Description:
Blueprint: H1 13-33, H2 37-54, H3 57-64, H4 75-93, H5 98-118, H6 129-135, H7 139-165
Amino acid sequence: MVPRILPRSAVYEPILATGFVAVLAAEVLKLTYAAPFFPVFMGLWLIQFAMIKLFDIDDFADNFTQYDVFAGKFRAYAYLFPFLQIVLGLAYLAAYNAQAVSIVLLIVATANLIGLYRQYDNAPLFGGKFLSAFLRTPLRESAIAENVLMLIMALAYLLTHKLVYGF
Length: 167
């Protein structure tokens, strides 16, 4: 079975809500402190998604190990993943080597999407007690949407940086 890349619109509601909050906050920071919008948005969005995972990290790890390429082999990676998202988000916010951060994000999102594609039929349809209650959407489809957005954001940053700065 080929995964449905564009699931029901309800799947996007939590992702759109976190994106909306990140857009508003990034715009305020841009206007108030002349902070660059795109990296600030990316940083806030990543931190928000990491925070959701940290509310019940055991639940997240149990589900993540079922489809992630790295977490399936190294369970500790499932526990480290939300912290990796926080570090990447903070690096964007601090404007710390955003090109390298984007490359890491590109690798992480691609690995997650490969794992989701390979395990689509076996990936948890719904997350555990917390993720299902919070997201109110099928976990595998929201994970696909989250990782596609991370991939697009990383690529967009790298491409715009290349066009603007030439490297």
